[in-house]
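User: Before I run my own analysis I want an independent prediction to cross-check against. Here's the chain; please return only the structure tokens and, at the end, one sentence I can use as a sanity check.
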Amino acid sequence: MSRDETIVRFDDVSHEFGANKTIFDEVSFSVRRGMKFTLMGQNGAGKSTIFKLLIGAELPESGTITIAPKVTIATARQVIPRAELQLSVREFFEKMFSEKIYDIDPRIEEVLEVVNVHAPHDRIVGTFSGGQQARLLLASALIQEPELLLLDEPTNNLDKAGIEHLTKFLVDYNKTCIVISHDAAFLNSFTQGVLYLDVHTHKVEQYVGNYSDVLKDISARVEKENMKNAQLQKIAIENKEKANFFAMKGGQLRLVAKRMRAKAEEAEESMVDVRREDKTIRAFTIPVQEDLSGEILKITSYNTIAHGKGGVSKSKKHKKEITLKKNQHLLLLGPNGIGKSTLLESIANKTAEGAEIGKGIVVGYYRQDFSNLNFEATVYEELMSVMKEQIEERLRATAAGFLISAEMIHTKIGHLSEGQKGLVAFARLVLLKPGLLILDEPTNHMNFRHLPVIAAALDAYKGAMILVSHVPGFVSKIRIDEKLDLAK
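Assistant: Structure tokens:
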């Protein structure tokens, strides 16, 4: 098979979500065999929908999608189905194949090494932490060694070592790959081209080069188009002013005025439709609960999880005294599976044995899987439910700052993209006015443009805060007063 062969082609593909919500409008692009592409676009633009169309989970409204004959496609699912949580690691991976694989164990070991998970093959899948389960899902796609590998935010929940393992795998991978990610350094290591889904035009623009090359290309083009439009706008204004002047003189000068107006219209028609860049959320502040004083959170002990042979998990208790007061930020560290998310959840739910939250403290909890949001509620209903004073104008103004449109505000949470759910979760924290802020991997699924804005808001937060994040560049922008490493 030639590496110049087209493995995927979209020809004038149009697709809608729900009632008349356009996602793609006559989209056309092609991917050659062996190429590694990044799929870019604003949260909610439809990146994950392209993957669903490729695997046949959804069908386009019109146009054709052509996939080369006998091409195998694999993608990592978002969550492990409940029925599979009782499977052993070996049984979980065996389900990825329609036929029995006799050398399954060495293949499992190889992909577990790629995602940096070390576990016996008879360990039960449900005993892994949420972060480790995400790694197993990634490994379940990799083990199939497909001709076309589709990865949606694969670095989410991966620590530095995990990202390094995955990067090496993709650099060495000699088949076709399309990746959705906002991690610039990760993407630059292997990307050969970019498919950019424009949320405004609903088209896909195709570029050659790595992630940074394409961002520079787009920025240069936008600047050039803006300069050209500014010049044409100036010509149009000048000719309109002259036309008004000559029209008032009357007589033969009205013909001159007519020519001036024609020149103004010509200049306006020549203005190019400048590509609208991804919007960034507005700078925001998370207000602090009123009359906040004294000890907000006191930790005297915490538990970590150790995984032994056969998937047996042991809980170990540690004594440590940490007190958080107003304007104090704690960073929680430790590898996947040690119990960070479990500790955060127990503190947020006030069930942690060695942690006590002050009386009357409002807790704002950003959960990485968004399961504390009501997926059956609309965005409007979810945001209104946390407001002490239910003022619609404030709700809508806050929502707009997080790019939540008038249409999106009446959409059910469960119908949003993961990135959009994250924006709703932050809007919810702003309206909640917490005294204690608990954040578990708040960068997951987020457009890279939003991250500096989010970091600035967390840095300025005046209440008590506990943060878990595996993204050093993000954490470095936030004031941290104390660190607790669960591995020590």
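Sanity check: The chain has a mean pLDDT of 85.
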